[in-house]
């Protein structure tokens, strides 16, 4: 439960990101990023131990490096163009400003800090880091209007590195961190279409990730061997649908934005990028199937006699039914699209 002080920091966190994306010059956006960092650090400080202190120090140092580099590169750009306006930037200035934003986002190959600190966070803080904390730097990147080749290069790096690094991971937090990097690649490519498409993808990603982090937090699941804690078949089915939807398995809800982006790439003859997206998503989906398989085996090993419509779980069954209907409704959206 959030106390009054944490509630204040949460409000600061929300409004700082809104301030960043609504800014019209680089200096104001830098100020918003600083407020965002100073609001997030007290939130993740939950108890006094070495791991938490290490996470705080790492996060502060990396964000401070990113912010100072962001300010310095914008200062150079403003001296060259005599303005702090976001609409003005030279090609060299765009490239220099992109680097600290990539660091703040944890995009490959600058993802080392992101993977390192997520292991010391609980699932609520992980959800914030994987979703809300991406908004400011992500939209600042779009305001730069990078070229097609810049976007494809950044997206391709993350699409290649994230599936390779995710193999042999036993930590679910690291798996979802690498998955987040993979989804960021999709959002970068979605920016070639429109900002509305990015918002649509980001909203669906957050919606699909929220129930998973809640379940993992509720049952204290952080590694593969913790999946044995799930003792409810309806909850197991709910988790199965959520993970497959997050992986973009058709015809579930998560497949819709990926299909739209894929069709856009084909229409613009970007076949190599489309092929890379397919293979990268298949690797990530394979890992998701591995999570589901481990959870199912653990459950069925402990429960020999199972009935799906168990009267002890009516509320869970309602949630599962609603979420299933939502995913199946995606088929109708395909026809409308």
UniProtKB/TrEMBL annotation:
Occurrences of domain NADH:quinone oxidoreductase/Mrp antiporter transmembrane (ranges): 23-283
Recorded catalytic activity of this chain's protein: a ubiquinone + NADH + 5 H(+)(in) = a ubiquinol + NAD(+) + 4 H(+)(out)
Transmembrane annotation, as ranges: 5-21, 27-45, 57-76, 96-115, 122-142, 148-168, 199-223, 235-256, 276-302, 314-334
InterPro entries recorded: Complex_I_Subunit_2, NADH_UbQ_OxRdtase_chain2, ND/Mrp_TM
Single GO MF annotation: NADH dehydrogenase (ubiquinone) activity
Membrane topology: Multi-pass membrane protein
One record GO biological process: mitochondrial electron transport, NADH to ubiquinone
Cellular localization per UniProt: Mitochondrion inner membrane
Keyword annotations: Electron transport, Membrane, Mitochondrion, Mitochondrion inner membrane, NAD, Respiratory chain, Translocase, Transmembrane, Transmembrane helix, Transport, Ubiquinone
Principal subcellular localization: mitochondrion
Mitochondrion listed as a keyword: yes
Record keyword Transport present: yes
Domain of life: Eukaryota
GO CC list: mitochondrial inner membrane
Enzyme nomenclature, EC number: 7.1.1.2
Family label: Belongs to the complex I subunit 2 family.
Record's function text: Core subunit of the mitochondrial membrane respiratory chain NADH dehydrogenase (Complex I) which catalyzes electron transfer from NADH through the respiratory chain, using ubiquinone as an electron acceptor. Essential for the catalytic activity and assembly of complex I.
Protein's name according to its UniProt entry: NADH-ubiquinone oxidoreductase chain 2
Organism field: Archipsocus nomas
